[in-house]
Amino acid sequence: MPWDLLPLARRGSGSQAGRSGVVKLVGQHLSSGLQDMKQQTGSPRVSVLMAAYNAEKFLDEAIQDILRQTYKDFEFIIVEDGSTDGTLAKLRTYAAGDPRILVVENTENRGLPVSLNIGLEHCRAPIVARADADDRYMPDRLQQQLAFMDRNPQVGLLSCAVEKIDENGTHLLTQTFPREDGEIRIRELFVNCISHPGAMFRRDLVLEVGGYDPAYRNAQDADLWLRLRRKTKTANLRAPLVKYRKHGASAVQTRSEDKKLLSLGIRQRALAEYLGRDVGLDEAAAMVDAFWFRRGHQVAPERVLEGLRGLQEVWAQARLHETNATVRFFRRSVSDALVCHARGYSDRALRLRLLTEAVKWHPATAARQVRHTLWRKTVGV
């Protein structure tokens, strides 16, 4: 059977994607070797899911990194989201040359969450690995992540550290995230720490919680992770398996104020759920500002102190519901943030107050940070 007919026959022409009338399937006949493998296994172990919109500039590197993975039993679902550049032509060429690739064409731009939902309808594997069309991937990414998922069936959502690169592929920094479920869950109350282009998840869980919400065009990952946390455990691998590209058109670089409010609304929901009470948007924003120190983004001192009151309530809940290790992680994180905030203020009394609070939260962390600050001043760094 031709590949362009297989998805509708095998995955159901009555799916939402099939009914919408906005997708066209482009692909190859299955090679005889791959046909034999599918007859024996029924479906691949992993579906790699990518959506592409005006991604011509970086598309070749992203696709080739996936095709060169050391783990071979995967299908590659790419949703072309109504691009106006050469993205579609490139995708058709790749689909003609590799039987693992299925290109789903949107006849108009639908946005990332809708495109990913369409792609999920065509994924046959029980495990889905996300990939973005402008990033790069280490050759053993799938192999490392799948091995972890096999060893840890309780984990339904997995990601990894990321290496941030610029438009030309030059290394900028390596960003690590908490690795254990408890640490991830409590940090996710304030800031996303599951990298979307490095995510691997169990497809049935994502479908069970309703997939991606189209209302979150630029924060669809954080919204999905919040809903998944009620169903499964999460983890991050230590290794940076993704090279995340920062450029002018990337999603993080182009967020408007409205989109930032959407993202903040997710934190508001998470905090309200965790604390068991209503949390106002401004209250949530204050807690986020106090917890998440961002270099170059100075927060008004009264804002930090306001947020600190909410963080103390989170601490009280954590002592009731989290492991000792998770509580210690949270206390260290708050202490570290308070010291960093204190460094940015010129008022000595205010700095002393914040440093005193930092010591209350975690004395060892505060002392280490203060010693480090004094050393930097001594050597003129």
Could you describe the 3D structure shown?
This protein has 381 residues and is α/β, with parallel strands linked by helices. Helices cover 50% and strands 17% of the residues. It has helices spanning 6-11, 16-20, 32-41, 56-67, 87-97, 112-122, 141-151, 181-187, 203-208, 220-228, 257-275, 281-291, 301-321, 324-343, 348-361, 363-379; strands at residues 23-26, 46-52, 74-81, 101-106, 127-132, 136-137, 155-165, 171-175, 200-202, 233-245. Strands 1, 2, 3, 4, 5, 6, 7, 8, 9 and 10 form a 10-stranded mixed beta sheet that branches. The chain is elongated and about 65 Å long. The N and C termini lie far apart (66 Å). Residues 1-22, 28-41 and 375-381 have low confidence and may be disordered.
Mean pLDDT: 87
Rg result? 23 Å
What structural class results from the helix and strand content?
Answer: alpha/beta
Major beta sheet summary: 10 strands, mixed
- State the shape: elongated
The total of helices stands at 16
State which percent range the strand residues make up: 15-25%
Helix content: 40-55%
Number of strand segments: 10
Poorly predicted sequence stretches spanning 5 or more consecutive residues: 1-22, 28-41, 375-381
Q: Secondary-structure element order, as H and E?
A: HHEHEHEHEHEEHEEHEHHEHHHHHH
End-to-end Cα distance, whole Å, is 66 Å
